[in-house]
TrEMBL record:
Signal peptide stretch: 1-19
Keyword field: Signal
Record's compositionally biased regions (Basic and acidic residues): 229-248
Protein's name in the database: Protein kinase domain-containing protein
UniProt-annotated stretches for the region Disordered: 228-265
């Protein structure tokens, strides 16, 4: 039986809830610090939520597996040139209602501000993906759903989350997974997936910057032919103004010459 950690009473701030299949997650502010609460007991008690349709695990089994994985990943583990933290910290667990509390590590790469991702290079993303997979392998954890949506960013810090579809020490086995898409998956193209998400977000950011610049300063990209046409039109207008000015000056001089002199008597 898993142990239940005793926790003190915390002051809770505003709560935002997000549906996650038959499970639920909440971002809770505790003493001005955000945390993530995740529960495996469907509050609506829907018949279809008696097991996870992807993993095939029932809620108590899915809860026990994810908590055990987080505890394993929170243990100090050495990996070559991999420093820092790559996974959420398990803060508290509540076995009686199948819920736990983990650290809040930012928003996922598909929803986070594009400026945060564009500040990272492709080498940064590749290094993170390589280290995360190396640490998972060292902990005997296989994450079958590593992707941009399950990677969050805060500042320049990335974190891999969501261990609904994962195995610990080979359990549950691949044949136990309900969703056939995950039975043949052993390792994912994690690095390329992160780089693809970054490229898409940065391209959107660049396009937005161009549109904002056009709104402020007007069109900046004018073709050479169009520019030549505009210059020719302006030159023709200048010559026309000069011709009209010279013509008016000639007419005025002609009128002065044709006017008879005043009679002195």
């Amino acid at each position: 039986m898993m142990r239940l950690l005793s926790v003190g009473v915390l002051a809770l701030g505003p709560i935002s809830a997000e549906a996650n299949g038959c499970y639920w997650t909440k971002v809770v502010v505790e003493n001005n610090v955000k945390t993530v609460h995740k529960g495996f007991r469907d509050p609506l008690k829907r018949r279809g939520c008696r097991w996870n349709h992807d993993s095939g695990l029932r809620p108590p089994e899915a809860y026990a597996l994810e908590v055990a994985i987080l505890e394993r990943l929170n243990e100090p583990r050495n990996a070559s040139q991999c420093t820092g933290r790559y996974f959420p910290r398990l803060l508290r667990r509540h076995d009686n209602n199948l819920s736990f509390v983990q650290s809040y590590d930012g928003t996922n790469l598909l929803e986070s501000p594009s400026t945060a991702q564009c500040s990272l290079s492709n080498e940064d993303l590749t290094r993170f993906a390589t280290c995360a997979e190396a640490l998972l392998e060292a902990a005997h954890v296989v994450h079958y759903d590593l992707k941009a949506k399950n990677t969050v960013i805060s500042g320049d810090q990335l974190t891999a989350i969501d261990f609904d579809l994962a195995t610990l020490d080979g359990r549950p086995s691949l044949t136990d997974l309900s969703d056939r898409r995950y039975r043949t998956r052993t390792r994912t193209a994690y690095g390329p997936a992160l780089r693809e998400a970054r490229a898409a977000r940065c391209a959107l950011e660049r396009r937005s910057a161009v549109l904002r610049d056009r709104e402020v300063r007007g069109p900046t990209h004018v073709s050479a032919r169009l520019r030549q046409r505009r210059e020719a039109v302006e030159a023709a207008r200048g010559r026309q103004r000069d011709f009209r000015r010279d013509q008016s000056q000639r007419l005025a001089a002609a009128r002065r010459q044709s006017k008879p002199p005043d009679d002195p008597s």
